Amino acid sequence: MSQNQQLPQQSGNSNIPVSEVYWTLVAKADKKFSKIRDLPYYQRTRYDTYFYKVFKVYTQLWKFQQENRQKLVEAGLKRWEIGEIASRIGQLYFGQYMRTSEANYLSEAYIFYEAILTREYFKDGLHLDVNLASKQLRFLARFLTVCLVLNRREMVYQLVNQLKLLLDECKRTFQETDFKEWKLVIQEIVKFLKADTAFMNLRPLRYSVVLDLHPDCLPNVTDAKRKLRLRDALLCSYHPNEVKFSELTLDTFRMLQSLEWESSGSFYQANLAPSIGTGSGASQNGASGPSRVNQDITDPTLPPNPRKAILFRPSVTHFMAVLGTVCEELPSDGILLIYLSASGNGLHVVSSPTRAGSSIGYTENIVRGFQFHSINSDSSSTYPITTGYDSVDHSGDTADCLHIGPRGPGSGMNCIYPSDLLPFTRRPLFLIVDSDNSKAFK
């Protein structure tokens, strides 16, 4: 055992001041967090070891500050420093959800972020330090993303209002600071919510045992020689003026939910009634009470959620590299779903609620079917799905491709052609092309 790991035990003998032990753990946690923060989400299990090492340090740090809170406060510990630890843990949980698609990680991220919000860790000194104000703004933006994916719309609107009020206060207090980027953030989320309003009162996009048939009740392919499952998905979107929040576009946001099981119906029920706290982890993370999200959402009778790699405006080279990595790591019984949302044939199509809504309703049922249906291995392993764009008149258009980059001289380097995907059809592939030029991929 290393010396740093022994520090908490030594502090019990008063050999080392509690504050020194604490700041040693903080430095160690910061160092490990910086190594994992920018790691890609799309490589299967490659970075799990890093996550568990970082999480172990932050668990130790969080527990230590809880057990020695009074002494640390007397030594000068600020509330915002406690909030920053909780925020880091929330980031770790959300990052691991993005890597694994396991809903429990998403639920835990919400719990930590909600605790920060309700206990107002960043409030003290907020109007005296612009850096502290920026921490609060970043925290609200991260919490917004978690709430969007978790479908906690009431909390989303609450956070948007808080973000607006905080930004107004910051502009009045710190007049010498330009908060232009945060104005754009608010514009993005308002536009995003306005575009997605039509879906608010409808059934969730996730498969729900409350509203859908159980997989055992669905027909199977009786003569299948191989039992294949949807294991991975690559979601890519590029439009000139698409509706988005941060790097989550409206298209990929809806596809992300369509590719997940909602085994207990908790996401849907969260919009109908307050969640009831369950589980034994409340004392560890400090978030308990009636607002606690139900963590018991794992149903062993349902398959795991497919891992999803979400690419926001990638270059063609990056897209192909990620696709190659995902194919290489695809399990032997796995199907890879590729969702491409982009314009083609020189038509600039804006990602709109009408377009995204019409396509997602069609692809949603297809995607769900592939989560539990067996596929006949004798048939073709590529299943291109097209949307209502086939009715567009393409007369005079010659480029059979999708554009995932700016147009202009040399823009051919930013195009994805059907032939680019042929090498990857060696693995079971399910292709959804959401484009005005989808017929080129038939």
From TrEMBL:
Residues 279-306 are annotated as: Disordered. One of its GO terms (biological process) is DNA-templated transcription. One of its GO terms (molecular function) is transcription corepressor activity. Residues 281-298 have a biased composition (Polar residues). This is Signal transducer. It comes from Perilla frutescens var. hirtella. The lineage of its organism: Eukaryota, Viridiplantae, Streptophyta, Embryophyta, Tracheophyta.
